[in-house]
Amino acid sequence: MELRVIGQKAKDASFLLGKMGSAEKNRGLLAAAQEILDQQEKILAANAIDIEHAKAKGMAQGLVDRLLLTSARIDGIVEGMRQVVGLEDPIGEVISMKQRPNGMMVGQKRVPLGVIGIIYEARPNVTADAFALCFKTGNAVILRGGSDAIHSNQAIVAVIRDGLRKCGIPEDAIQLLSDTSRETATEFMRLNGYLDVLIPRGGAGLIRSVVQNSTVPVIETGTGNCHIYVDETADFDMALDILFNAKTQRIGVCNACESTLIHRSIAKDFLPMMKNRLDEKQVEIRADEEACAIIPEFVKATEEDWGTEYLDYIMSCKIVDSVDEAIAHINKYNTGHSEAIITSDYDNAQKFLNEVDAAAVYVNASTRFTDGFEFGFGAEIGISTQKLHARGPMGLLALTSTKYIIYGNGQIRK
Amino acid sequence: MELRVIGQKAKDASFLLGKMGSAEKNRGLLAAAQEILDQQEKILAANAIDIEHAKAKGMAQGLVDRLLLTSARIDGIVEGMRQVVGLEDPIGEVISMKQRPNGMMVGQKRVPLGVIGIIYEARPNVTADAFALCFKTGNAVILRGGSDAIHSNQAIVAVIRDGLRKCGIPEDAIQLLSDTSRETATEFMRLNGYLDVLIPRGGAGLIRSVVQNSTVPVIETGTGNCHIYVDETADFDMALDILFNAKTQRIGVCNACESTLIHRSIAKDFLPMMKNRLDEKQVEIRADEEACAIIPEFVKATEEDWGTEYLDYIMSCKIVDSVDEAIAHINKYNTGHSEAIITSDYDNAQKFLNEVDAAAVYVNASTRFTDGFEFGFGAEIGISTQKLHARGPMGLLALTSTKYIIYGNGQIRK
Question: Could you give the CA distance from residue A331 to residue A49 in angstroms, rounded to a whole number?
Answer without folding.
Answer: 46
